[in-house]
Amino acid sequence: MNAHSSSSSSNNERIVRIGGASGFWGDSSVGAPQLVASGQIDYLVFDYLAELTMSILAGARLKKPELGYATDFVSVAMKAVLEDVVQQGIRVVSNAGGVNPQGCADALAALAAEQSIALKIAVVSGDDVSALLPQLRQQQPPVRELQSGAPLPERVLTANAYLGARPIQAALDAGAQVVITGRCVDSAVTLGVLMHEFGWQPGDHDLLAAGSLAGHIIECGCQATGGLHTDWDTVPDWPNIGYPIVECSADGRFVVTKPAGTGGKVTPAVVGEQMLYEIGDPSAYLLPDVVADFTQVRIEQAGEHRVRVHGARGRAPTASYKVCATYAEGFKTAAQLTIVGFDAVAKARRTGEAILARTRTLFARQGFESYSGTQLEVLGAESCYGPHAQALQTREAVLRLAVTHPRKEALELFAREVAPAGTSWAPGTTGAGGRPSVSPSIRQYAFLLDKSKVEARVSLDGQCIEMPRDAVVAAVADAPSPRHAAGDANAAASAAADAIEVPLIRLAWARSGDKGDTSNVGVIARHPALLPLLREQLTEARVAEWLAHLVEGTVTRYEVPGIGAFNFVGEQALGGGGMASLRNDPLGKGMGQILLAMPMRVGAALLALAEAGPKPLDTPP
């Protein structure tokens, strides 16, 4: 039975249940069938699009005009569940359209026809702003990249505005069973559902913030049900981990859960980690529909694998859309070798240095300039920990060399000079495999664009749906975000006579994420009594020093008092960002783990609270 079919017609009593089946293009195929088979959902939403994904899809469309969308959405996910989705009355929203949402809709319509299923499919477009680029190049003041301030590149591959939830709401209002969008913010696929179901309007800022938070929690799939959890060893049954479900009320409150009988776990700590994932200032999370404030959100256990979330606040959105453009700049490749035996780390480093030295000499003979960028890492030797790496007597290490160059021929020469290490230098060299491939170096360029220049379009079965023109009202400037709360009388507890040094992981949970070349690390105290100690010792200056080998820019600390947490935002932290970075960890996934190794001084009583509970978020206040 459909979850809300038996509930009261009153919005105040009705619950809308939404399952998040995908966190990225490449997520497991088990999500959609699992959620549909559970009988616990009214809507199925999919998030597929990352910045790199958009450039990959653009390349696919150039080679074959009917492509340019996330093909797995049709050929894998919907093929597996389409009949059941229609029979159960489940409606579907997905941003699988990529750079060709109509092509995605056509492919889904063909699948439905093959299965003799009548299906009303809506398409949301208008996010592609490539046609505006010539005009933008002439405007004053000139377009500037949000983080670096760089001018607009000459050769842009894609340029897509992050649309909001209103077009999705309009499509569902018109009766669409499936809504396919191009680029929209990840949380919009959920917010659009809730705006449709509860009649939320553009001025309902608190509700829009709450719905956006619900979408943010489930937009990364199993990260809301125990995936990437700091206490990973407490998360049961990884192979059968459940995908997330949010049960939402008209007042903006929602419960996070998962299908019955699945693996994983849903606790306030798990949900809290995901709330802080990939955000900047938690009091001003900028979205097309609302500026959300998560600082006073409360997260409480509401039963086994059930977590209640409430307290999001919102204010008017800005007058701009964020646009993500991609462009090509030179070429890149990466190669790996395994080194076995005594002094494996030293042998690996010398091997990498030798390859770079030899190829630079060969470049000069060919008349090539030197590399535009290089990255030498020894995996297994804690390279990512920089000066905090522990001395390891490992007898197996992986050399990783990533390089960029303006000319493809230079990197093809590099690729040929990797395998010769297997007979020329260090004993125990193996694992070369085939020659590494050379590809264009795709980079991200983000900028702001006045909303008046972008027109979202909605069509249902080929017929245009009229979109209401909302008044654009810029958010009013607010007081500075809570960065440094006043001192606490209990802070001296960190200097207790019996204080010992422990890694931060014994006192807190943490998760890190990325936005361009910025990385954030959300840190949640394991017990409220630890907050003064963390505030005292986990300062901006100390975190910046600990991560200095990775973060070149400033580090800003924000407080999130509702869940007893801090959010650290580091600029120029990812070697140029996900697509441009040469690092083995271009998205900063390990940044939180590295911070959790920071030594902290704590007295025995506080340490006992951290390790024995009660956990700070597991019990309602």
Tell me what the structure shows.
Residues 16-459 form the Acyclic terpene utilisation N-terminal domain. Pfam families: AtuA (PF07287), AtuA_ferredoxin (PF23544). 27% of the residues lie in helices and 24% in strands. By secondary structure, the protein is α+β, with helices and mostly antiparallel strands. It has three domains: 15-127 and 162-317, no CATH class; 330-444, Alpha-Beta Plaits (2-Layer Sandwich); 489-612, no CATH class. Helix 3 crosses helix 4 (101-114). Mean pLDDT is 92; it is low at 1-9, 472-480, 485-493 and 616-621.
Helix/strand layout:
Elements: E1 15-22, H1 31-38, E2 43-46, H2 51-63, H3 71-88, E3 91-94, H4 101-114, E4 121-125, H5 133-138, E5 156-161, H6 166-173, E6 178-181, H7 188-198, H8 205-218, E7 245-249, E8 254-257, H9 268-276, E9 285-286, E10 291-293, E11 298-301, E12 307-310, E13 313-315, E14 320-340, H10 344-366, E15 373-379, E16 396-405, H11 408-416, H12 421-424, E17 429-430, E18 439-450, E19 457-460, E20 463-465, E21 500-503, E22 508-515, E23 518-525, H13 531-537, H14 540-546, E24 555-560, E25 565-570, H15 591-595, E26 599-602, H16 604-612
Parallel strand pairs: 1-2, 2-3, 3-6, 4-6
Antiparallel strand pairs: 1-7, 4-19, 5-14, 7-8, 8-12, 9-10, 10-13, 11-12, 14-16, 14-17, 14-18, 15-16, 19-20, 21-26, 22-23, 23-25, 24-25
Helix pairs in contact: 1-3, 3-4, 6-7, 7-8
List keywords for this structure.
621 residues; alpha+beta; Alpha-Beta Plaits; 3 domains; 11-stranded mixed beta sheet; 6-stranded antiparallel beta sheet; 26 strands; disordered N terminus; disordered C terminus; AtuA_N
